[in-house]
Amino acid sequence: MSKRDFYNVLGVSKTASDKEIKKAYKKLAMQYHPDKNPDDAAAEAKFKEIKEAYEVLTNKEKRQQYDQFGHAAFDKSGFGGQGHQGQGFGGFEDIFGGAFNQQSQGFGGGFGGFEDIFSQARSGRGQARPRKGQDIEFTLTVDFIDAVKGAEKVVELPLNGEQKKINVKIPAGISDGEKIRFAGKGSAGMGGGPAGDMLLIIAIRPHAFLEREGNDLICNINVDMVTAALGGEAEVNVIDNRFKLKIPAGTQTGRKFKMTGKGVTSRKGQTGDLLVKVFVETPTNLTEKQRSLLEQFKAA
Asked: Which residue numbers delimit the J domain (predicted)?
């Protein structure tokens, strides 16, 4: 079965900004997330389709390729063609981004060409002094939960002209944009110098109903209108914690309930708070009896 257009999947135009794409993704992901639809195969398939569209359209290089060639841009085997398919590496679909291509342009298509430039300079000048090899960077996209709790993964990267498997330990509490350094895994040194380093820049995939602000963890929950008005309890499910939250009578949309010290612990050991943010649901498709009761309430 042919794939649907990624823009149609997210319900955005082809000129949509990253902000608009992210907003559309979060809305749809929250609706079809497996946690919200247990044992629903159709919802799970829909969620995977939404996730794949998001990861292509928020990656500048992949979006350009998709706009030019459509789904055919990712049909070929190899590093470029497997970027968003995630074959063999779980949630690391767009693990490499465009960093590798940027590093290789202008150097003969690979890191070997970089050495050739200096080999020319050495001729007639004697032995060149040792130089450290060039640092290389890749973008590693990880799931929100893996970034909060930490995880260990094996990823395959193109290093010095060949594919190599690297064990990556994702530290618990790592933030979006932080880097993990691998000493000596970069380009080879010149003149007997040490190899450069490899840097993995962490990009965190948005969660359907969890957000992070600094070290504070924000959980968005829906509360029905009656519970919000009269008070009651709501179930909260945050990563590995599940508990009942007391909802005071008269609770409004946007109200936050803070649980001190239950947020994210950063790499520096600093722990934030858990903020449960309430969204009051307005009922739809009322029965005649329900409508009548609301009319009586309005009149009172």
From this structure: 5-70
The total number of residues written for the chain in this structure: 300
Which range has the worst mean pLDDT, 66-70, 101-105, 207-211? 101-105
% of the chain surpassing 70 pLDDT: 82
DSSP string covering 71-121? GGGG-SSSTGGGTTT-TTSTT-TT-STTHHHHHHTTTTTSSHHHHHHHHHH
Domain presence at residue 114: no
> What range defines the domain where residue 224 resides?
210-283
Last residue of a domain, one of 157, 182, 206: 206
State if pTM tops 0.70: no
From 161, 188, 206, give the residue that closes a domain.
206
CATH number of the domain bearing residue 157: 2.60.260.20
Buried b (16+ CB within 10 A) or exposed e, 258-291: ebeebbbbbeeeeebbbbbebebeeeeeeeeeee
With beta carbons less than 8 A apart as the criterion, state whether 28 and 20 touch. Answer: no
Q: Tokens 């079965």, residue?
A: 1
Closest CA to 188 of 119, 115, 105, 122: 115
Cα 185 from Cα 136, distance rounded (Å): 8
- Residue range 9-64, pLDDT digits in tens: 999 999 999 999 999 998 898 888 888 888 888 888 899 999 999 999 999 888 98
Domain total in the chain = 3
List, for residues 119-139, the tens digit of each pLDDT value.
444 444 556 789 998 999 999
Structure tokens at 25: 């993704």
Q: CA 204, CA 181: separation in Å to the nearest integer? A: 17
Q: Given the structure tokens 């430039």, which residue do they identify?
A: 117
Mean residue pLDDT across the chain: 82
Same domain, 103 and 184: yes
Give counts: helices (H), strands (E), the chain: 9, 11
